[in-house]
Each structure stands twice: as C-alpha cells, then as structure tokens.
TrEMBL record, chain A:
The keyword Oxidoreductase applies. This is Indolepyruvate oxidoreductase subunit IorB. GO terms for molecular function: indolepyruvate ferredoxin oxidoreductase activity. Residues 11-171 form the Pyruvate/ketoisovalerate oxidoreductase catalytic domain. InterPro entries: IorB_Oxidoreductase, Pyrv/ketoisovalerate_OxRed_cat, Pyrv_flavodox_OxRed_cen. The gene is iorB. SUPFAM superfamilies: Pyruvate-ferredoxin oxidoreductase, PFOR, domain III. Gene3D superfamilies: Pyruvate-ferredoxin oxidoreductase, PFOR, domain III. Its EC number is 1.2.7.8. It comes from the Bacteria. It comes from Sulfurospirillum multivorans (strain DM 12446 / JCM 15788 / NBRC 109480). The lineage of its organism: Bacteria, Pseudomonadati, Campylobacterota, Epsilonproteobacteria, Campylobacterales. Keywords: Oxidoreductase. It is an enzyme of class 1 (oxidoreductase). Coiled coil: none annotated.
TrEMBL record, chain B:
It catalyses: indole-3-pyruvate + 2 oxidized [2Fe-2S]-[ferredoxin] + CoA = (indol-3-yl)acetyl-CoA + 2 reduced [2Fe-2S]-[ferredoxin] + CO2 + H(+). One of its GO terms (biological process) is small molecule metabolic process. Its cofactor is [4Fe-4S] cluster. It holds the Pfam family TPP_enzyme_C. Its EC number is 1.2.7.8. Residues 542-564, 572-600 form the 4Fe-4S ferredoxin-type domain. Heterodimer of the IorA and IorB subunits. GO terms for molecular function: 4 iron, 4 sulfur cluster binding; indolepyruvate ferredoxin oxidoreductase activity; metal ion binding; thiamine pyrophosphate binding. This is Indolepyruvate oxidoreductase subunit IorA. PROSITE patterns: 4FE4S_FER_2 (PS51379). Binds 2 [4Fe-4S] clusters. In this family the first cluster has a non-standard and varying [4Fe-4S] binding motif CX(2)CX(2)CX(4-5)CP. The lineage of its organism: Bacteria, Pseudomonadati, Campylobacterota, Epsilonproteobacteria, Campylobacterales. The gene is iorA.
Amino acid sequence: MKYQIVIAGIGGQGAVFLVKVLSIASALANQKCLGTENHGMSQRGGSVSCYVKIGDFYAPAIDEGQADLLIALEGNEALRNIQYLSKDRGVIVMNAPKNFPKVDFETHSIDAFKKAKAKEFPIDALNVYMLGVTLALDTHFPFTCKEIEEAITAMNAKVAEKNIAVLHQGMNDAKAVK
Amino acid sequence: MKQILMGNEAIALGLIHSGVDMLSGYPGTPSSEILGNFQKFRDKFKLEAYAQWATNEKVGFEVAYAGAISGKRTCATMKQVGLNVASDPLMSASYIGLKGAMLLISCDDPGFYSSQTEQDSRSFAKFARIPVLDPSTPQEAYDMVKLGIEFSHQFESIVMLRPVMRVSHAREICEVDDSLYVKANQGNFERNIPRWGAVPPAGRFRQGLEQIDRLEAIKLWNWEHLIEPKTHLLKGSRVLCLTSGTGDGYVKEAVSELGIDADILKLDMPYPLPKENLEALFVKYDKVIVFEESFPCIEEQLSSPKLYGKLTKHVHLIDEFSKDKVLSAFAKAGVIEPNHAYQSEKYNKELPKRPPNMCPGCPHRDVHYAITKTFKKKKSIYTSDIGCYTLGLNQAAIDTILCMGASISMASGFSISDPDKTVVATIGDSTFMHSGVAPLINAVYQNHKFVLIILDNSTTAMTGRQTTPERTNPNQIDIKRIIEGCGVACHEYVYEQDLNKTVDFMKSLQEAYKTATAPVVAVVREFCVLDKENAVGRLGNVVVEVDEDKCVACDSCITNYKCPPMHYNDAGKMEIDPFLCAGCGSCLDVICPTDAFVKK
C-alpha cells in the first residue's frame, strides 16, 4: 500500500498529535510509515503542515501532486496546501464554514469552529474531532475506527476515553451533514 | 524490537545503546529533542548518566570532549549555527584526538525552517578533518549513532553525525535493540602533556601528520566497509547517482516512481571519501550526478568530466531537496526530457498571512511595544538577538539580528557609529548567558552608552523550554548580580499584564539614559506562557471583545501590538478570536487610540 497524508493547520491545533496517532496506527496495521513535522518557528497562530507517508517510502517529505488526503484543521490552510494533493486521487477533509470557496477536488467540509463555539466539543480536541470526520467520510482512508482508537489509547491512556468520545462525535456529525 | 520513533528520539536511544553516558549541548532546532529524550530514556531505564544543557555550544563541546579524553563515551549536541560557536575547540580536538569515544551531533536545516542560514555541517567536518556520517531516516540515524561511537573509539577521532531537519523531525517505525547492557563507564584521565596540552608548534606538527595518516586509514575503511559492499548491487545503467543523507530518499523515490534508468550509490560517510576507488567506478558510466543537501561536500572531493552537480550548476544551490529538484537535475544533465511530474498548481487567490508570531499573552510583546512607544523609531536603533523575542520583527520593534549575543556588541558599535540615536538592545536570558556576558563586559569596559533590556523568562523558550543556568541554580547564578558584577546598576522590573506599567518602566530607563555614561542595563522578570511551572497564576483570565462602534479600523493594534487573535471580520472591524486569546487583557490598556477593546 502507498498512501500519503498532509495535515495542515495553525500552531496550537495539534497537527503533530495526529502525526503520532497515524504513525502508531500504521504500526498496529503492520505498515511502514514515515512522517515529518515542522517545529521551531511555528508558534501559536502560525501555519503548520505535517506529512505522513504510509507504505514503501524513503523520503519523509510529500511532494506536490502526490498526497491522497489533506486533513485541514482550518479552511485557509487547506487552500494553502492544495498543491500537494494528487489530481486524480486527492481528497480534502476540512474545518471550514459553509460559504467556503469551491475547489477542484473531492471535498468534505464541516464547520467545527461553529460547533466548538456552541460548546458541542472542547476546542482543544479539534484534531481528534477532524480525524473522526475523516474516518466517516474518506472512503479510501487506510485505517479502521478500531485501529485509530487503539492508537489513541497507546498515545495516552489517561485521556483516551475523552478523545475517543470526541472521535465518535466527529464521525457522527460528519455522517449527519453528509 | 520495533518502535515508532522521531529522529531525535532514535538518536537518543542509539546513544544509550552505544554506552554513551555523558551528554552536553545547547538547544537549537532541529537538534533540541536529542538531549531531552536522552534524559527521558536515562530516567526510564534508571541509568547513571550525565546529560545537561551547557551555557553554549563551545562549552557543551568542551565538557563532552574532556569526558572523551578521559576515556568515556560522550556526545555533544547542537544545530549547525551552534557548530560555528563550537568550531574553535573542534579544530584543535580534531588534531589531538581522544581515548574513549565522542560523537558530535550537528543538525542541519536545509530550507531555513528555523535558522538564519543554510549551512552544511559536513563541510565543517571536512574543514576540521573528521569523519561525518549522514543519515537519511530515523532508522539510519539510530544505526549510525552506534556505528559512529564504535568508529570514534577505534580511530581515536571525533566523529560527526549530521542529521537534517527531515531526519531529526521525521517519524518512522524503527528496529532497535531489545535490551540494555549499559552501565556507567568510568573515566580516568591519564596525564600526557605532549598530547593533551595543546601548545604549538612541535607536538602539534606531529599530531597534524598523524591526523592526515588517520584520514587515509578512514578513507580506506569507508571504502571497504561502507561503499564497496554496495557496489555489487549496482545494475550497470549508463547513469550513476551518488547520494548522501536525505538526498538519497528523494532520488530513490523519483527513480522508482518514474522508471528512470539509473544506478544509485548512497555514501553513508560523505567525508573522507576514497577518491581513487570511487572515480574508478565512473569508467562504466556516461554520467555521474551528485545529489546532496546542502553544499557540494561530496562533489568537491571528486573530479571527473562525467561529474554533474552543484558546482556544474546542474543541481540547485540553495533550499531543501525535493523530487521536483531531482527531476530538474536529471533533465539539465540530459538524462531525461524535462518532466514536471512533481509540480502542481497552488491556490492563486490571497490567503491570510500567518508569519510566525509570539504566543498570545507573551510578555515579550508588551516589552517590544513599550520600547517603540517610548524610544521613537526615527531617533532609535533596535538591536535584538536569537530567541522568541526575535518575532518582535512583526511589531517593527527590531532593526538587526545577527547571531547569538550580537545585540549587545552591535549596540556598542551603533553607539559609536551613529551616536545621535538611542540604541536599545533586547536579549533573552538564555542567549545572554550563552554569549551576551562577554559583550556586556566589553561595553562597560569601553563606556559604550546604550540601553540593554534582558528579557528573563527563565527558560530557553523558542526551542522547547529547556532549562537555563539561573533556572537550575537560582541562588547562585543571577542576571542582576552578573550585571552588578560588571560594575553597572541593574534596573529590575517584574512584569505585570498592565501594559501601562511596562511603558512607565521603559520611560524610567529613558530618564536614566539621559545622564548615563555607560550602558543602562535592565532585566525584565517575565514568564513563558507555555511554561506550566512559572506561568501559573500570572496569566490573566480576561475575556476581551471589540466595541465595533468605536473601532475605526486604524490598524494601530495589529501593526504595533500584533497579537495572533486580532483579525478583521467581514464588517471590516477588529475581532478577537476566542480560541486563540490567552485572556491577558494587555490590549485593554494603551494600544487602541479609540479604546475599542472592552472587557466582556
């Protein structure tokens, strides 16, 4: 299998956490995995992008036109990274308002900020929420819900229960707007 | 045993599995997590090992080197820019050699993700005449740490490991050793004055000759153990790609995905190279292309009319590698037709700019604001330094940034070259300890008149909140007493989230400057908002909103204060993003000319 994921967001949203979860999930699914994350200058509020390459790869960075999936924790960051998506296979899962610009890819969008403002889920779990949305809507996503749950538990067992609840909330909300 | 490891974790584990029990360094992205992870593993496995941050890279190197000449297995960690600071001891240590083992880890940053310059530490290894290992993935980094330590011991030479950001901050499922047999190794310094006492010239000359002999032996070892076994796997294409480090991954992927007919030979130790043996391989090929990041380290050691690379302008000279750059090099060398398989259209409409910015609630923002409010831009020069406060650039509160400690020495220089302006220097506590003390002594010694503000949040915030000297030993090392020890008064201000008070403090410095004959030095006692221990109870809990009737969209707040939650809404008025706001309430104070910020 070869599957490449770009995770985009702004500093403080937990993109790096998703890289860790997905690399653990790869190990659980017996797949090779190479990922990379930007540290250092990406303070809170700055753009952050991370890559996860699952399968037989040698270079950690994803090149333009190659990614199967773009998970964007913020809509504009999806647009900023759109060149990484494969023209044939690329899918976007993003947190964006309803009146967001249309792009030429299969796009699944949910207004997670609106839901967080209405206190439907805690904003610091936005990353896990969007992972739930991805599980529900990206039909080619290479992991099952169970594998992701196991990975979240392996990451940090103490907060796993809360995170898994948000994961399912993301899945349910996504199915509802579909 | 398989483990999911980030490159820097893999390196730390490799050090432990190699029996290294003495580690010293200075933080710098992308190297910072090596020492922290080493401490984590040490505590987990209950090992006896020294692993501490030093005041700067030169000091860190020298501590680790002393351990190595006493026969211990040691390591110094830093980033490429830090190696500049440590280059002084490195050059001599390379002559003298060692008894135990020492790995010098210098992490490079191709693409300038978090550095001022794109340097190639391999070139420094070449300059210092020490062998360098160039890993391409976390797994290789782990393996090469173990190889490097053994090799260092065998050849009595410092060995450099040069991971780049895409190795240090990559994550991979790695195969690592199962169990630990590590126990603390005992150092025992044996007196040998002609060897360890570096006085020129007689002894040095002999050591210089020994160094050259050692290099010849390492070249041969490089050929016999690392390169020659791989040559049997070459398939006999017309084109040979010589790769090193991360360059290898990009070439491998591009060649296999696009079916390009080329042989790939990865050089694990890019210096010193067995030139004659390698060039003998070229006979079978029409073209040899060198893919390496960042400088032409391999290319400079070889010569052949068949050679294509950076020196011949076939490979890019600056920025991180990518598969698109690999294809471009193949095309320029006439191996393939121009190919744009790895190019895609960007979104071409305007997007919100998100330059790196200080965290919401960060005291540095208030200090920079107060400086520009008090010392007017036209009549002042703002020198600054390396750390989070460098992001005061966003507030136009910084005019110069050069390297660690330079804010103070450059303030000295400007006070002489442009004496009509007030020079205001800013520097963090960690950077001050790293290389600010010597320039302060110089400034007092020479009676240079400027304002120096030391921003003391008691942590190395930018690289991930590593400890600083005064944090670990607050009763012994104190910035105020260092300043007083230089013979000048220390103006002290304990930061509060009332911006008016910070501005008032700045005005008191301005008053002191009027009659001063030496530097006016101040320390602002701050905290880092991400520092759980210190920030507790010091961050406010004020929810601020904007009175849209009062907001006249004058840009004053986002130009001079520039807090991340501030943005314009659809109505063209300022709005505070509740998900980003830290609740410090500083914006309620002096920053809005129409008082549009109000408590909710």
